[in-house]
Design a protein that fits this description.
Blueprint (H helix, E strand, L loop, with lengths): L11 H9 L1 H12 L1 H15 L4 E8 L2 E9 L17
Antiparallel strand pairs: 1-2
Length: 89
């Protein structure tokens, strides 16, 4: 991707993202500088992509993410309790 000639050297994608979707651009910028934002996003995508039931807790300290805790409920919305698979000998 080519860089633009703007003084802050943003790519064309970044400039257009900032112009048309400022909230997404701000989140995108945070992902570049704080690894915990990526962990948070990975947790959210995991819950969405696996149609999971549970919670994600984000603990902030001094305006930055300190912890990201993900908790899945394995028996949510099941008609019956899961049983252990039987092993073959």
């Amino acid at each position: 991707m080519m860089k633009s000639t703007s003084p802050d050297s943003k790519t064309k994608f970044e400039e257009e993202l900032k112009l048309y979707f400022p909230d997404i651009y701000q989140f995108y910028s945070l992902l570049k500088f704080d690894r915990f934002y990526r962990e948070m996003l990975d947790g959210i995508l995991d819950m969405v992509n696996t149609d999971s039931y549970g919670s994600i807790e984000i603990v902030y300290q001094r305006g930055k993410i300190n912890y990201v805790n993900q908790k899945k409920q394995l028996t949510a919305e099941k008609a019956q309790k899961l049983t252990k698979p039987q092993t073959r000998l």
